[in-house]
Write a structure and sequence with these properties.
Length: about 350
């Protein structure tokens, strides 16, 4: 096995051992996976997945996400790891991509098996298209790169809190703060308008909502070290969450009025996705302020799985569940302000 793959396998085993140290943790994970599979098999999602167009879209998203994540991981290894020599080796990179795409294909094969229909050709064709699109685009764009020094007009508007908070990370270039949400919003609206009216109503709701989710996730970046730095430099829990949601809020402010005017059928589903991602991002920021990163990630994973099961089985309990979790995290996150250790 190539040293790069051995390193990644060792890292994966170590992370799994830290996250699931005992047999009770594995048992809880198995129960939750079984419940999720049982809910998925009999749900409308499995029915929609039998459509070749939906299967191709799912495959494209999976291929895109797998390649982008793999490129970011290789870039990190080449820049900051002890095996940088292996991360820039052409043979090692080929092995790495083969393993990554094989993992994505296994996940898609599992979804296709649950759908119970011959959707594998469409799904794998979509995966190949998404992977090629992600591989052809640059890993870093000029629009998303933070400006080294804010322009003088921005300097005059800076508060002392901005000056100590890593202002450049969240502010970027003034044109980037406007252009990126505007382009994403116009693309989402164009997609919602372009959908044929004779399509399945569920598809006409799901596809715009999926594009909104992708745009929101692209505009939001939560870094645990930055969250901790903001807490230690005196930012409150709400302001920390607001800084992370600034670009996404601009996107929502542009998108929702346009959808209401041009594509009202996609308004409520898109608004629901925006609210859900904003809530999850806020809870994630607060959890990183209150707990170490690994513990926070595992808590969010199991909390999200429990919330999904609760929402599917008894939706009225989902709102108090999220509210209680948010109040508990907010109280702990607020106490972390100015705490240096």
């Amino acid at each position: 096995m190539h040293p790069l793959l051995r390193h990644e396998w060792a890292v994966l085993r170590g992370e799994v051992a830290l996250a699931l140290p005992g047999w009770r943790d594995w048992l809880m994970l198995a129960v939750m996976v079984a419940l999720a599979l049982a809910l998925l098999t009999g749900s409308e999602a499995a029915t929609a997945l039998r459509d070749n167009r939906v299967a191709a879209l799912v495959g494209a998203v999976a291929g895109w996400a797998g390649v982008r994540a793999g490129r970011r991981r290789l870039d990190h290894l080449a820049r900051e790891s002890v095996i940088a020599w292996a991360a820039i080796d052409s043979a090692g990179r080929r092995f790495y991509w083969a393993a990554a795409l094989f993992g994505v294909a296994l996940v898609l094969a599992g979804l296709g098996t649950l759908a119970g229909a011959p959707v594998f050709p469409a799904m794998f064709a979509g995966m190949a298209a998404g992977a090629l699109a992600a591989a052809s685009l640059p890993l870093r764009t000029r629009l998303a790169r933070a400006a080294a020094v804010p322009p003088p007009r921005d300097l005059r508007r800076m508060t002392p809190a901005d000056a100590v908070s890593g202002y450049q990370v969240f502010a970027c270039h003034p044109h980037g703060r406007i252009v990126a949400p505007l382009v994403a919003a116009l693309a989402s609206v164009a997609l919602a308008i372009a959908l044929p009216s004779h399509w399945n109503p569920a598809l006409r709701l799901a596809i715009p909502a999926g594009s909104v989710a992708l745009a929101m996730l692209a505009l939001i970046r939560v870094d645990a070290e930055m969250v901790v730095f903001l807490a230690r430099s005196g930012h409150g829990a709400w302001r920390s969450a607001g800084l992370h949601l600034r670009a996404a809020a601009s996107y929502a402010a542009i998108l929702l009025p346009l959808l209401l005017l041009c594509a009202p059928h996609a308004f409520w589903s898109s608004a629901g996705v925006i609210v859900a991602i904003a809530i999850v991002t806020t809870l994630r920021v607060w959890s990183f302020r209150a707990y170490p990163k690994r513990f926070a990630d595992m808590m969010l994973l199991f909390g999200g799985a429990g919330g999904a099961v609760l929402g599917a089985s008894f939706p009225p309990l989902l709102v108090p569940f999220v509210a209680i979790a948010g109040i508990v995290l907010l109280r702990r996150a607020a106490r972390a302000t100015w705490i240096m250790a």
